[in-house]
Amino acid sequence: QVQLVETGGGVVQPGRSLKLSCAASGFTFRNHAMHWFRQAPGKGLEWVATISSDGTTNYYADTARGRFTISRDNSKGTMYLHVNSLRPDDTAVYFCAREPYLVIGVATFYFDLWGQGTLVTVSS
Amino acid sequence: QSALTQPASVSGSPGQAITISCTGTSSDIGGYNRVSWFQQHPGKAPKLVIYEVNYRPSGVPDRFSGSKSGNTASLTISGLQAEDEADYFCCSYRGPSSYVFGTGTWVTV
C-alpha cells in the first residue's frame, strides 16, 4: 500500500524540542525528494522544508530556518523533522509529502502523495 | 512570505460550474508554470487535483481543470457534485526552492 505515515506529534512545552517522523511504504522512497508542510488550526497550508532524494540538499522556509532540521534515512524509508525551541505559533498539523519524479534528482515542483498529518501543540 | 490570494468561499448548485481564483505576483504564479491545486476535506490530508497549471493526476475526474493568466491561476470545477464540497488551496513555486500556498477557498455545494 502506497502511503506516508507521520508520527511524533503531541503536546510540548514552549522551548522544548520535538522530532517528527514520516514513514514511507509501497514505493521506492530513495528516488523521491520529500517535503514537510504544516497547517495551523483553521489556517492554510505552509511549506516548511524540502530534502533531496539522496539527502544531501535541504531547503527551508524563512520561518523554519535556524530551528528546524530536515533529514532522512533511505535505508529505513523514513524522513524526519527536528524542531528546536518550540513556540506557541508552531502549533499545527505537520504533513509530509512526496514529490514525484521523471528523472531522479530533477525537481517536478509538486506533491502527489500526502500523509494524514501529526498534530503538534505547543503549550505550557 | 505573503500567501497567494483566494476568495474565502465559493458556492454552486449540483451540476453547475464554479471557478476559484488564485492571485500572486510575477515572483510566483506569473514567473513559473508550477501551479498546483489541492482539495482538502475537513480533518483530512490534502489531495492533488491539478499540477503544472492544467494537468490532472490519474484518478482525478475531468470535471477539474486549471488555467493561468498573468499572475492569476484558476481552478474550475464543472458539473459540481456533493463530494466536491471541501477546502481548495492553490500552490505555486516561488524560487529559489520555495513554495507558497493560497489562503484557501471553501466550496459549498
Structural class of chain A: mainly beta
Percentage beta strand of chain B: 35-45%
In percent, how helical is the residue content of chain A? under 10%
Helix and strand succession of chain B? EEEEEEEEE
Brief account:
The complex is a heterodimer of chains A (124) and B (109). Chain A is an all-beta fold. Chain A has no helices and eleven strands.
Descriptive report:
The complex is a heterodimer of chains A (124) and B (109). By secondary structure, chain A is mainly beta. Chain A is built from no helices and eleven strands. Chain A has strands spanning 3-7, 10-12, 18-25, 34-39, 45-51, 58-60, 68-73, 78-83, 92-98, 113-114, 118-122. In chain A, strand 7 and strand 8 (78-83) form a beta hairpin. With 109 residues, chain B is mostly beta strands. Chain B has no helices and nine strands. In chain B, a hairpin with a 6-residue loop joins strand 3 and strand 4 (47-50). The mean pLDDT of chain B is 96. Classes of the chains: A mainly beta (124), B mainly beta (109). At the A-B interface, strand 5 of A face strand 7 and strand 8 of B.
Give short descriptive properties of this protein.
heterodimer; A: 124 residues; mainly beta; 7-stranded mixed beta sheet; 4-stranded antiparallel beta sheet; 47% strand; B: 109 residues; 3-stranded antiparallel beta sheet; 42% strand
